[in-house]
C-alpha cells in the first residue's frame, strides 16, 4: 500500500512538472539589421521562414512604448526624422480625432484581409492618436502593400520581416523600445571616439569591424547573412562594439557609453517581460537590432528567470 501511494505521488508530481514545463512562457530573440544594402536585400527571407515556423503568439518590435513620455520628449526633436514626423502627427491628431474605443476594438478584432480601405485608415489614425508607433507603421505597410506585403524587398527589415510576419499571423505588434537616454549615449559615443584616437582603442575597433565585414561576405553571397548575424559569435561582437567593451582603456566617455547602453537594454528587457507576463502568451518573438540581442538575453535571464529566453540560431 505504501509503495502504491509513493508511486501515485511521484506520478502526480511528474505530471505537474511536465505541465508547468509545457506552459512555460518563452521569448525568442531575432537580431535584425534594420536597413540593408541592395546586395543583401533578400537576407530577411530565411529569417521570415524561420519565424513563421516558430508560430509566435505575440511579436515585439523596436518601437518606443506609447506611454513612455521621457523617450518621446527626446524623440520629438531627436535623431530620427521618422520619429519626429510621427510625433508631430500624433500630437496634432490627439487634438482633432474623434477616437471611438468600441469601433477601434471591433476593427482590431477583425482579420486583416477583411478590413476595408476606410477601416485601415481609421486604424492608422487611431494608432496615431494612441501614439502606438509599431502598429501605426504596420497599418501603413498594409495600406501600401496589401495583405501579402511588398512583392519586392524594401531593404527595411521592419517591413520585410516583422510586418510580413504580423500580417501572415494576423497579429498586432507590441512596442518595447526605450530611448530615454539615447541622446546621452550618442554624446558619450563621440566622446569615446575622441579618446580612442589617443590611446589606440579606435585602431582596435577598426580591426574588429574589418574582420566582422570579412566574415560576412560569403554568408551574404549565399543569402545567409541573417543567419550569420544571429550566430552567437557575431552577436557577441556587435554587443562588444556597441557597449564599448572593446576599448583599450576605460576612459570617461567609453564608461558613460557602456552605462547608457546597458541601462537601455535593461529597460527594454523590462518592457518586454512585463508585457509577456501580463499577456500569459507562451510563444513570444522579439525583433530587435542585432546589437541588442546579447544585452537583452542577459537582462531577461538575470531578472526574469521564469521566462525561457532563446536565440534564433539556438532554437
Spatial order of the strands forming the largest sheet: 3-2-4-1-5
What overall form do the CA principal axes indicate? globular
Instruction: Tell me the domain tally.
Output: 1
The sequence of SSEs as H and E is: HEHEHHHHHHEHHHHHEHE
Computed Rg: 22 Å
Helix fraction bin: 55-70%
Report the strand count. Answer: 5
Determine the N-to-C terminus distance.
44 Å
Oligomer: single chain
Low-pLDDT segments, ≥5 res:
12-20
- SS strand fraction: 5-15%
- Main β-sheet, in a few words? 5 strands, parallel
Walk me through what this model shows.
The protein has helices at 2-23, 44-54, 69-75, 81-93, 101-108, 117-129, 133-145, 157-169, 182-199, 201-221, 225-229, 232-242, 252-279, 293-303; strands spanning 26-32, 58-64, 173-177, 283-289, 308-311. It is of the alpha/beta class. It has one domain. A 5-stranded parallel sheet has the order 3-2-4-1-5, with helices on both faces. The protein is globular, with a radius of gyration of 22 Å. The protein starts with a helix and ends with a strand.
Describe the secondary structure blueprint for this structure.
Layout: H1 2-23, E1 26-32, H2 44-54, E2 58-64, H3 69-75, H4 81-93, H5 101-108, H6 117-129, H7 133-145, H8 157-169, E3 173-177, H9 182-199, H10 201-221, H11 225-229, H12 232-242, H13 252-279, E4 283-289, H14 293-303, E5 308-311
Parallel strand pairs: 1-4, 1-5, 2-3, 2-4
Helix pairs in contact: 2-8, 4-6, 6-7, 9-13, 13-14
